[in-house]
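Structural prep section.
Before we set up the soaks we want a predicted structure of the protein with protoporphyrin IX containing FE in place, mainly to decide which crystallisation condition to try first. Input record follows.
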Amino acid sequence: MTDQPEAVDFPFERTSPLHPCPHYARLREEAALTAVRMPSGDTGQLVTRYEEVRLVLSDPRFSRAATMEDGAPRYGPAPQKFKTLLNMDDPEHSRVRRLVSREFTVRRVAALRPRIQEYTDSLLDQMAALPGRETDLVQALAFPLPVQMICELLGVPYEDREQFAAWSDSFMAITARPVEEILAAQRALYVYLSGLVADKRLHPGADLLSALTQISDSDDGRLSEEELIFLGVSLLLAGHETTANQIGNSVLALLTHPDQLDILRKEPELIPNAVEELLRLFPPGDETLLRIALEDVVIDGTPVRAGEALLPSPGSANRDERHFEQAEVLDVRRAHVDHMTFGQGAHYCLGSGLARAELQIAIETLIRRFPTLRLNAPLESIPRQTGRLVHGVGRLPVAW
Ligand code: HEM
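Run finished without errors. Recording the tokens verbatim:
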């Protein structure tokens, strides 16, 4: 690892709950890579331009598995010892991903769509019945919808949501919680998923976790018990934290861009495209897809040594003027919104289909049923979470 005295502290502070730090635009102009000091104190190279972010995410010379090795530069102060799908390289990664993809199919997500609609309707019925015509949209919709859906998909008891949401909250922390608490949450989630997997073996249902248990049991199955448990943890956590924050970010963006909201009200068929545009500009975590270089390489003239950390930033790539015209402008009619918010290459988000279905249904139903919906607090007063891997607005006061 190179110790670069000129490294700047990372992540950068936001000046708005909606937009990333304006530093990114200047950094993209200066170079594709910028030396940064991560919250752990280790240094790395922040990758800010679209083409270079794509390169680092899709080229096997930049490893996820190496982030788990002792002494490797790490992002946060807590060691990352969870060998999830995301922390594997090929050939192990392809093997496990192929097995999971056999069960986590487009058809399974399509089958969930009516349930997503039904549950969204019931949450919005409760919201409509509130006498004061005002609420916190994070509590009313953004959080409960993805939690309920991931519970139904995986076959996790919904009654356990408060418990696993608390562990998840600590697990996703970088500096927002003490290291001991983050490690305790990792252990607790492992034990919780071990119990669930054992239960699914005894009483298999129609859910994804039961189906994955069957793969691991089958004669040609090569999904070990540990792989299955880590997979369950990552699906449970990735399956709700990201989408919950993205619903909040998207609604806040629409309420503060009334011209774009108007277009969607008049032309709801644009909603799938609008969801992509909102993912491009307002992602739920834009900095931390850490990779370790496996060999010496030169990127845009900057040498990167084997063992050095790279931090490709999808949030910055998504605003790169080299790739997107008028990149800073929210345009729900934009053609070809090929954003990086779901990653790129081998680790491309496994749950993107589910996330898209939830985002499309939540936004379409909300704006159809609440035509007078408005932000009920000044934009600057909306709290944006900090010190977390995945983040969004902590509260979203709305009225109608
Ligand atoms: C708006 C919502 C979401 C966003 C923005 C998001 C973003 C991402 C990103 C950027 C990656 C790649 C990380 C990297 O390369 O370092 C990823 C991977 C992953 N995501 Fe998502 N995600 C979302 C929703 C979901 C959902 C709903 C699930 C599960 C039901 C999920 C499960 C996963 C898994 C298992 C991986 C690892 C894939 C692999 O390593 O092969 N995600 N996600």
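Observations: The chain has a mean pLDDT of 91.
Flagged for discussion at group meeting.
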